[in-house]
Amino acid sequence: MRRKAEIVIAANLRGRRPTRSRPPSRRGAPAAYNRFMAYDALVVGAGPAGSATAIRLARGGARVLLVDRARFPRDKPCGGGLTGRALRQAPCDLTPVVEHVVDRFRLRLRYGRQFERSCKLPLIQMTQRRRLDQYLLEQAAVAGADVHDGARVTEIRQDEHGVGADVDGAAVAARVLVGADGANGIVARVAGLGAGIVHGVALEGNVDWGSVDPELYRHTAVVELGQPAGGYGWVFPKGDHANLGVGGWAREGPALREHLQRLAAHHDVAPRALTDVRGHRLPMRRPGASVPGRGRVLLVGDAAGLVDPLSGDGIYEAFTSARLAAEAILGGDLDGYAAALAGALDHHAGASWAAKRALDRHAAACFWAARSPRVFGVVAGLLQGSVGHPGEAHGLARPPLKLIARLARA
Ligand SMILES: Cc1cc2nc3c(=O)[nH]c(=O)nc-3n(C[C@H](O)[C@H](O)[C@H](O)COP(=O)(O)OP(=O)(O)OC[C@H]3O[C@@H](n4cnc5c(N)ncnc54)[C@H](O)[C@@H]3O)c2cc1C
Description:
Layout: E1 39-44, H1 48-59, E2 64-67, E3 81-83, H2 84-89, E4 100-102, E5 104-109, E6 114-118, E7 124-126, H3 129-143, E8 146-148, E9 153-158, E10 163-167, E11 170-179, H4 187-190, E12 197-208, H5 214-217, E13 220-225, E14 232-237, E15 241-249, H6 256-266, E16 275-285, E17 293-294, E18 297-299, H7 315-330, H8 337-361, H9 363-371, H10 373-384, H11 398-409
Parallel strand pairs: 1-2, 1-11, 2-8, 5-13, 11-18
Antiparallel strand pairs: 3-7, 4-7, 5-6, 9-10, 10-11, 12-15, 12-16, 13-14, 14-15, 17-18
Helix pairs in contact: 1-3, 1-7, 7-8, 8-9, 8-11, 9-11
The protein binds flavin-adenine dinucleotide.
């Protein structure tokens, strides 16, 4: 029998030593862990944002409880593409879970014209979320966090002394609560946060290498522009399979299966060969539209609506927000988190919103602008993390990028 309603008294963060490393899951005893424990931070959700926050907090000497309602290893609908800029923000080396390295792009417009570009350096490193998230969860435990999967948070409370939450029926208190519970989580809703977040939606599935010509897809990210509206389709290579997906505005939801089938047909994949077909929302925050924290509650990753509106990527933003949230908590400056996050992400997100607007309205012109090898150099730099913003482009890359910026305003 599980013991209910154990109360943990909030602890003072300063001067604490990290807790001992533990195996990631101690299932079946969610109340016992917090009996005499005091937590500096309760992190709700163990996706990339939550585990990265827990790793950084535990390394900084905080007592951390990381909980997730799912039992790990668990999967999450995602293309599993790790850009270079995401890897730069990761809390640890992710090489052990990288399955395939992409250094080539094939871009096609509405299943018509296409071009290919390649790069000497890796553009995207491919993983599977089942592996990435399990690995990060383990790293959180190694760093000293208490980690509990299969433990759902059903309620949160906060006052001037700390926060409280019901974790699998047990009352847990901590100094700070980090909402890392994704696009459909409860923390933002209960804390009255999340205004100004708009949603996209994406659907993906896998196909064995045996069902496609591997030579066409190895080391190549195929991007199908302009379908569905407000997004694109993709084929990403993984270790023993390829991942096919489509994403766009939320209103495209009812048509996504059809879009996925069309994508599969264009790549000679029989719709029945697709397995593990799953969809999920993409929460996108308009710059300055919502606050990622209130009082002792901070939001990170998808819970804060940080998905990039152009690419639909969110792992870079998950890792970046995790780092900044951990710094704010360890530095005792919770109020500084919102400004730090805006400083790190809003400039780039603003450019992504503009490019998305241009693409929505003038896909063909954007496609032609993107054909310029100089523009590809900038895109590669953005993915690799060596370029922070398209405005940093020089020389011959500038005119086509200026055209895209003008089209966004047209
Ligand atoms: C189809 C698709 C393809 C994508 N492809 C890419 C890509 O290739 N590259 C990229 O960078 N991004 C991609 N993204 C975006 C990326 O998946 C997300 O941005 C990323 O998962 C955000 O991580 P997170 O930790 O914030 O949230 P999540 O990964 O969603 O994790 C949230 C966690 O919170 C837990 N949780 C929820 N509620 C509770 C609760 N009440 N109590 C306890 N736990 C709870 C959940 O079980 C979950 O484990 C894609 C998204 C989709 C939908």
